[in-house]
C-alpha cells in the first residue's frame, strides 16, 4: 500500500484547527457574555444603589446564567472530538475529491476486514497518496466566525478597560461592592456622619439630628431626613444647614417608637441608622413608717406608696424606692437643705445612714427625689412629696356639777368626760380649800380618780368629793380641778386641767332652798354643759 502520511497529517491539522476554532468561539462568546453582565451590573448598581441583599441576588442570577452559557459554548469545545473519517468527508466536499479520501483511509487500514477487488483498493490508495501532499486542507473551513467572536470578546474587554480608566473611582468602588463591601459611589456631596445631639432617644421627648458633610465638596442649602417608623410608616423632615457650616440639623418633636433614619443631602445618601427608643425610669416610692408602739393600733396608717404620706409625730420614716423598668445608676433624696445619696441594696435604694432627719420626725417635711438610670436618663422632673406629721393632740377634759352650794359634811358629785386621740393614762382631782375669808388657799390635795388599764380613749364618769374629811365650816370654799394625763408610751404624757368647779359651804336652810330649783333633767343638762366645754364634734 502507498504511504498516506501526508493525508493523515492534513486531516489531523484540520481537526486541530476546528478544535481551536470551537474553543476560541466558545471562549469569546462566554467572555463577551461575562463582560456585558459585568457592565450591566455596574450600571444597575450605580443607578439603583443596591444594598447587600440585592447584590447577592443579582450575582446569584448572573452566576446561574454564566454556568448555562459555559455548558452551551465552552463545554462542547472540550468534550467533542471529531473522527478522521468525518474530517476527511468535509475535506472531500471542499476539494471536490469525491469519496477517494475516505475510501483510501478505509482501504489502507489493516485493522479491518477488506472486501472487493484488492487491485481496486490498491489503486485508490495509490492515487490518493499521490495527491494528498497537494491538497490545501484548510481550504473551505470558514475563519470569519472565529474572528467575529474574538472581535466581540476583545471589544467587550476594551469597553470595560475604557470605563475603568475613565472613572477609576467608581470602578474601584464597584469591585468592592461586588465583594459585598459597604463602600458608596463618589458623589458631588459627601455625607460624613449622622448623629443625634442627645445620647439616647427617649420616649415622649424630642431628639435632634445633626448631619455633617465634607466641606470640600458641594454643600446645598438643605437636605432631607427620611424616617421609617413602626409598620413601615414613612415621614420626611427638612434638614436645614446651620449657618455657613458643613452641618445640617433637624429636630423630631416627639419620639414614640423605634425608627430608622436616612439622610439625603445633595446627590449623596447616608447610611441608614436604626434608633432605639428607651423608656423613662418609672419609680415606685415607699415611705415606710415605724409608728410609736402606743399608737400603732389606733393610728390610721395610709398607703406607703403615695406622694403625700401622713405619720404620727415621733415616727421613724424610712424611704425606699425602686425602678420598675430600668436599672438605676444613682438616686438621692433632698430633705430641707440636706441631700442624701441613697444606696442600692438589691434594687432597693435606701437611706445610707441610721440617723437622719426622718428619724423621730416631728414636723411636716417636704422631700424631693432625683434618679438617673444606667443609660443616663432621668424623669422629666424630680419626684416631690410631703411627709405630713400629725401631732399627738393634747387630751381634753370637761366637768360639771348639779349645785355649787354644799354642806360641810356632804359629798358633792362631779360628772366629767375625758378624751384623747390615743389613750388616757390618769385622771386626777386637785382639791384646794380656802378657809373663811382667807385670800389664799390653806392647802391643795391631789387625788387620782381614774387610771384605766386599757388606756381608753374616752372616760365618762361621776366622782364624789368627800368634804367631811376636811373639817369645813360655813363660808369655806372648795375649788376642784380635774386633770387628765394622756398615754404616750415611754414618753411622759401631757396633763391638761378642766375648768375649776367651786363649792361653797353653806347652811342647811340655804342648801335646801337651792335644791328646790333642781329638776329631773339635771343629768341631761350636765351632759350638755360638758359637751359645750369639750367642743362640738368630739375627737376620738
Q: Main attributes?
A:
540 residues, alpha+beta, Immunoglobulin-like, 8-stranded antiparallel beta sheet, 6-stranded mixed beta sheet, disordered C terminus
Please provide a written account of the structure.
The chain is α+β, with helices and mostly antiparallel strands and 540 residues long. The chain has four domains: 5-178, no CATH class; 191-278, Sandwich (Immunoglobulin-like); 283-390, Immunoglobulins (Immunoglobulin-like), CATH 2.60.40; 396-534, Sandwich (Immunoglobulin-like). It is 30% helix and 31% strand. It has nine helices and 28 strands. It has helices spanning 5-48, 52-79, 84-95, 100-107, 118-132, 144-166, 168-178, 508-515, 522-534; strands at 191-196, 201-202, 207-213, 222-228, 234-241, 247-252, 259-265, 268-269, 273-275, 277-278, 283-290, 308-312, 316-323, 328-335, 338-341, 343-345, 348-350, 365-373, 383-390, 396-401, 405-406, 413-419, 424-434, 443-450, 458-464, 477-486, 495-497, 501-505. The strands form six sheets. Strands 1, 3, 4, 5, 6, 7, 8 and 9 form an eight-stranded antiparallel β-sheet that branches. Helix 1 packs across helix 3, helix 1 packs parallel to helix 6 (144-166) and helix 6 crosses helix 7 (168-178). The longest helix is centred in the first third of the chain and has 44 residues, at 5-48. The protein is rod-shaped and about 170 Å long. The model is unreliable at 136-141 and 536-540 (pLDDT under 50).
Amino acid at each position: 500500500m502507498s504511504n498516506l502520511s501526508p493525508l493523515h497529517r492534513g486531516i489531523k491539522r484540520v481537526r486541530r484547527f476546528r478544535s481551536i476554532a470551537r474553543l476560541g468561539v466558545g471562549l469569546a462568546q462566554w467572555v463577551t457574555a461575562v463582560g456585558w453582565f459585568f457592565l450591566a451590573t455596574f450600571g444597575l448598581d450605580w443607578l439603583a444603589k443596591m444594598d447587600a441583599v440585592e447584590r447577592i441576588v443579582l450575582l446569584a442570577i448572573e452566576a446561574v446564567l454564566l454556568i448555562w452559557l459555559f455548558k452551551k459554548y465552552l463545554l462542547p469545545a472540550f468534550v467533542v472530538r471529531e473522527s478522521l473519517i468525518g474530517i476527511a468527508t468535509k475535506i472531500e466536499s471542499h476539494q471536490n475529491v469525491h469519496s477517494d479520501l475516505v475510501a483510501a483511509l478505509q482501504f489502507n487500514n489493516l485493522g479491518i476486514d477488506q472486501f472487493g477487488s484488492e487491485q481496486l483498493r490498491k489503486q485508490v490508495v495509490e492515487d490518493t497518496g499521490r495527491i494528498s501532499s497537494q491538497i490545501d486542507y484548510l481550504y473551505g473551513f470558514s475563519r470569519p466566525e472565529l474572528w467575529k467572536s474574538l472581535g466581540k470578546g476583545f471589544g467587550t474587554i476594551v469597553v470595560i478597560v475604557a470605563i475603568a480608566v475613565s472613572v477609576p473611582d467608581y470602578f474601584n468602588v464597584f469591585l468592592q461592592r461586588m465583594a459585598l463591601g459597604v463602600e458608596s459611589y463618589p458623589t458631588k456631596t459627601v455625607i460624613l456622619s449622622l448623629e443625634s445631639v442627645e445620647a439616647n432617644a427617649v420616649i415622649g421627648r424630642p431628639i435632634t439630628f445633626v448631619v455633617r458633610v465634607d466641606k470640600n465638596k458641594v454643600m446645598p442649602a438643605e437636605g432631607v431626613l427620611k424616617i421609617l417608623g413602626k409598620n413601615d410608616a414613612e415621614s420626611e423632615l427638612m434638614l436645614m444647614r446651620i449657618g455657613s457650616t458643613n452641618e445640617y440639623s433637624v429636630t423630631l418633636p416627639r419620639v414614640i417608637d423605634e425608627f430608622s433614619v436616612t439622610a439625603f443631602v445633595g446627590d449623596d445618601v447616608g447610611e441608614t441608622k436604626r434608633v432605639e427608643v428607651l423608656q423613662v425610669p418609672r419609680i415606685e416610692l415607699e415611705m415606710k413608717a415605724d409608728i410609736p408602739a402606743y399608737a400603732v393600733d389606733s393610728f390610721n396608717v395610709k398607703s406607703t406608696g403615695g406622694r403625700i404620706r401622713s405619720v404620727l409625730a415621733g415616727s421613724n420614716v424610712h424611704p425606699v424606692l425602686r425602678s420598675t423598668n430600668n436599672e438605676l445608676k444613682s438616686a438621692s433624696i433632698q430633705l430641707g437643705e440636706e441631700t442624701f445619696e441613697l444606696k442600692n441594696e438589691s434594687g432597693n435604694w435606701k437611706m445610707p445612714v441610721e440617723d437622719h432627719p426622718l428619724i423621730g420626725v416631728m414636723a411636716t417635711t417636704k422631700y424631693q427625689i432625683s434618679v438617673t438610670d444606667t443609660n443616663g436618663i432621668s424623669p422629666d422632673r424630680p419626684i416631690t412629696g410631703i411627709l405630713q406629721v400629725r401631732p399627738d393632740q393634747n387630751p381634753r377634759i370637761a366637768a360639771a356639777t348639779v349645785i355649787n352650794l354644799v354642806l360641810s359634811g356632804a359629798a358633792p358629785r362631779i360628772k366629767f368626760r375625758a378624751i384623747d386621740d390615743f389613750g388616757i393614762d390618769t385622771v386626777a382631782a386637785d382639791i384646794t380649800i380656802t378657809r373663811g375669808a382667807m385670800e389664799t388657799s390653806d392647802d391643795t390635795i391631789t387625788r387620782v380618780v381614774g387610771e384605766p388599764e386599757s388606756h381608753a380613749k374616752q372616760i365618762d364618769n361621776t366622782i364624789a368629793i368627800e368634804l367631811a374629811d376636811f373639817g369645813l365650816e360655813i363660808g369655806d370654799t372648795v375649788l376642784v380641778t380635774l386633770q387628765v394625763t394622756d398615754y404616750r408610751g415611754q414618753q411622759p404624757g401631757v396633763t391638761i386641767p378642766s375648768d375649776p368647779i367651786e363649792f361653797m359651804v353653806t347652811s342647811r336652810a340655804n342648801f335646801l332652798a337651792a335644791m328646790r330649783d333642781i329638776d329631773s333633767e339635771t343629768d341631761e343638762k350636765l351632759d350638755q354643759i360638758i359637751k359645750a366645754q369639750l367642743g362640738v364634734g368630739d375627737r376620738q
